[in-house]
Amino acid sequence: MPKKKATAEVANNLTFLKTPTGINGLDEITLGGFPKGRPTLICGGAGCGKTLFSLEFLVKGIEEYNEPGVFIAFEEKAEELALNVTSLGFDLKKLQDEKKLRIDYIHVDKSEIQETGEYDLQGLFIRLGYAIDSIGAKRVVLDTVENLFSGLTNEGILRAELRRLFQFLKDKGVTAIVTGESGEKTLTRQGLEEYVSDCVILLDHRVVNQISTRRLRIVKYRGSLHGTNEYPFLIDGDGISVLPVTSLKLDKPVSKDIINSGIPSLDKMFPTGGFYKGSSILTSGTAGTGKTSIAVSFADAACKRGEKCLYFAFEESPAQIIRNMKSIGMDLQKHVDKGLLKFYASRPTMYGLEMHLVAIHKAIQQFKPNVVVLDPITNLITIGSFSEVKSMLVRMIDFLQENQITVMFTALTLNTVINDLTDDGVSSLVDSWICIKDIEMNGERNRGLYVMKARGMQHSNQIREFVITNDGLSLVDVYIGPEGILTGSARESQMLLEETGQVLHTNAVGRKDREVLRKRKLLEAKIESLKTEFESAEEELNKIYIEDEIKRGVMNKTRQQMTDLRSGNKDVK
Length: 573
Hints:
Blueprint: H1 3-13, E1 18-19, H2 26-29, E2 34-35, E3 39-44, H3 50-65, E4 69-73, H4 78-84, H5 92-97, E5 101-105, H6 110-116, H7 122-135, E6 139-143, H8 146-149, H9 155-172, E7 175-181, H10 193-196, E8 199-208, E9 211-221, E10 231-236, E11 239-242, E12 258-259, H11 264-267, E13 275-276, E14 280-285, H12 291-304, E15 309-313, H13 318-326, H14 333-337, E16 341-345, H15 353-367, E17 371-375, H16 386-402, E18 406-412, H17 417-427, E19 432-441, E20 444-454, E21 464-469, E22 472-476, E23 479-481, E24 484-486, H18 488-566
Parallel strand pairs: 3-7, 3-8, 4-5, 4-6, 6-7, 14-18, 14-19, 15-16, 15-17, 17-18
Antiparallel strand pairs: 1-2, 8-9, 9-10, 10-11, 12-13, 19-20, 20-21, 21-22, 23-24
Helix pairs in contact: 15-16
C-alpha cells in the first residue's frame, strides 16, 4: 500500500471526539464542546463565574446527555454550592440522591504543606477515583486547583504533581474541568496549568465606566479549530449564555418577500410596496419627529399580519409606549394580550454593550420573533464608544439576517459631530434608511420625511410631509406654492385659497354656460320665425304661379273659340 494512502487512512480513523457542554452558545464557539476524556482549564479572576460555569457543565451533562459527574470542591461545601445555584434552577441535592452527581469537599491546610515541604496528590487520586467509580462519572470538576498547591514553592514538585493530576484524569477517561485563579502576569496563579491543559478558557469580568461586562476567550484548544474572539456571556436565571459570534461571513440567506411598514403612503414610496423581509431599516431624526411612532407602526403592522414582534425599548417603559400610541389610534395592548408583541425594556446603563447584545440575543432566541425593533440605538452611545456600538450592531444585524428577522432601528439625531458619525456609520450597515427632518417655516415646525437609501429597490426621492394625527400616521405629497414648497398651516392656507379660487372659477364658467344657452335658444327661435316667414312667401309665390297658369289657359281657350267663329265653324259654342 502506498505510504501516502496509508497515512490518509490512519488520519481518517483518528476522530477528534468532543463532549458537548450544554452551555448555551459555548458549543458553537468550541465547534462541539470540550475535548472528550481530557482536562480543560477554566481560569479567571474572582467573580468571573468559574464555579458556576463548571457546575452548569455537570448539570447539563446529567440532564441532557445522561453523563454523571463529580464535583471536587476545595473552597465551598456541598450545602453551600447547592444553595448558591438554587436561583438558577439547579437542584444539586436531587441529583446527588439520584446518584448522578457527587460533590466532595476537600479541605487543604496550607500551613501543613509549608511545614513538611513534601507533597503529592496520591490521596486525592484515591478519593477522586472512588467518587468517579461510585457513580460511573463521565465528567469531573476540580474547583479550584490553586488550593492544592497554594502552599508550595518548589516549582519542580508543583509541575510534576500537576502533570500527574492531568494524566490521572486522562487515564480515567473523564472529561474534566479544572478551575484556576488568574495570576498577575499569567493566566493562572502558578502559571503552569495552562501549559499542561489541552484546552484553556479565560473568563473575564471587567468594569468600565461603572458598567460590568463578562467575556470569554478560548486561549488554546489542542487539535481543534475554535473561535478566537472575545465573546460576551451573560449569567441570569437560566444559567450561562454565550454569544457565539465567531465570524461575520456575508453568506446569509436573502428573501424577495415584501413586508409593509404600516403606513400606506410610506409604502408607496417604494415600487415594491415595502421592505424586503429579513432586511434592516434605520429611522433617524431629531427629537419629537415621530421615530418611535414609525417604529411602533411597523410593529403594529407585523402583529396585524399575525407575526411576532419583539420591541427593545431603551428610553420608555412599555406602559408609556402603549399609552402614548393610543393617542394616534394604535392599540398595542391587544397584541400584547395575544402574545404577538413583547416588550423588552431596560436602561442602557443596566449592562455593558456586549451584555446588552447577549441579552437581546437570548430574548430573540426565546421569543422567536419575525420582526424586531430597537428604539433608540443612540442611547447605547452613553455606555460605549461609537466604534463599540457599531461593532455591536454589526453582530446584531448579522444574527438577525441569519434568522431572516426584519429589524427596525431608530436613531436620534442631534446635529452634532458624534451623531453625524453615528448616523453615517450605522446607516452604512442597514439596507434602508428613512430620514425625518424638521422644516421650520412661517413660524412653525413641521416634519419632512424622505428615503435616503433602499438597497435592491427603487424608491421615491421626494420629500413628503410627515403628519401625525389622531387617526395615525400619513405622508402628504409635496405641495409647491407660488413661493416654493409649503408645509403645515401655510400649505393648508394655500390649499384653501386655491380651493376658493376653483369654486369662483366654476361659478363663472357656469354663468357663461347659462348665457350661451340663452343665446342659443334665442337664435333658434329667430331661425324658426324666419323659416315660417319663408314658407309664407313661398306659398304666396306659388299662388301667383297658379293664377297665371289658369289665366293663360282661359285666354288660350277663348282665343281658340274666336278663331273658330271667324272661320264659320258653327259647332263652336
